[in-house]
Write a structure and sequence with these properties.
The chain folds into two domains: 41 residues; 211 residues, Immunoglobulin-like (Sandwich), CATH 2.60.40. The chain contains three helices and 13 strands, in the order αβαβββββββαβββββ. The strands form two sheets. Strands 1, 5, 6, 7, 8, 11, 12 and 13 form an eight-stranded mixed sheet that branches. A five-stranded antiparallel sheet has the order 2-3-4-10-9. It is globular, with a radius of gyration of 25 Å.
């Protein structure tokens, strides 16, 4: 009887040990998978709904602000893709929606500095306190960039390929409507705590999209930068995986769902 009990206890001990070892092994795999999943999620392109709001039809950006605040989809420009080189990250959010003919974006920025030395369209506004929107159709490689400093000065180009680009003509630039809470006068860099908003209305036709036959989605990304400021920074909405800052990377665009 005693021998039998000893054998049973030994068997039970062995089973418990095997269960323990199996549990430890499973826990290790689970943790590795969790870490891998977390790492992969950080590079997954984002998507955002761009709702049609009838109230935006025929509206200018200054009037659109209240509508966007109430019913626009919200997003955050918070991917610090090159944190080791450029750790500074202003707090930047946006709201987005569309009318029948335009896409509306309202940027809201909290920053420790503000700069707007460029006042003419097609000036190098990325050197100022700058927000940007890049986009393309899903069936084309051509993409466009629209870059705005904090007073609404705009630079916009069309990129048929990675090595080709040309500026938009003046008549098209005039169709890009803008409204800034900082006005439209240039100024040198200021230090402090600043809150500013920029609202823009961009015709779909300038994006190569027929407003009467909207696609299900387009691809794009939103950015915040300040190459010529005292706190140089590069932040994106959808993550970018490159060794150094590079916004002209349509392969990392996220999805903008139009319908």
């Amino acid at each position: 009887m005693i021998v039998l009990m000893r054998k049973m206890m030994a068997s039970l001990t062995l089973v418990m040990l095997m269960v323990c070892l199996a549990g430890c092994k499973t826990a290790g795999i689970s943790q590795s998978e969790k870490e891998a999943k977390s790492a992969s999620l950080s590079t997954v392109p984002r998507r955002i709904k761009v709702p049609y709001l009838k109230q935006l039809d025929g509206k200018t950006p200054d009037v659109a602000i209240a509508i966007l605040n109430l019913r626009g989809t919200s997003g955050r420009i918070d991917c610090l893709n090159w944190s080791a080189q450029f750790p500074y990250k202003p707090l930047v959010t946006f709201r987005i929606a569309r009318s029948r003919t335009h896409i509306f974006i309202k940027y809201t920025v909290q920053d420790e500095l503000v700069k707007a030395v460029y006042g003419n369209d097609q000036d190098p506004v990325w050197k100022d306190s700058c927000v940007e929107f890049f986009c393309k159709r899903t069936d084309q490689t051509v993409y466009t960039n629209l870059e705005f400093n904090c007073i609404g000065t705009c630079l916009s180009e069309i990129h048929p390929s990675a090595t080709q680009s040309y500026y938009r003509p003046e008549n098209e630039m005039k169709q890009i409507l803008r409204y800034s809470t900082l006005g439209n006068k240039t100024f040198d860099e200021k230090q402090g705590n600043f809150n500013w908003e920029l609202t823009v209305a961009i015709p779909f036709q300038l994006l190569g999209v027929d407003p009467s036959h909207l696609p299900e989605k387009i691809m794009g990304n939103f950015y915040k930068c300040g190459d010529g400021t005292s706190r140089k920074h590069y932040v994106s909405w959808s993550p970018i995986v490159t060794p150094s800052p590079s916004f002209h990377r349509p392969e990392f665009f996220g999805e903008l769902l139009l319908r």
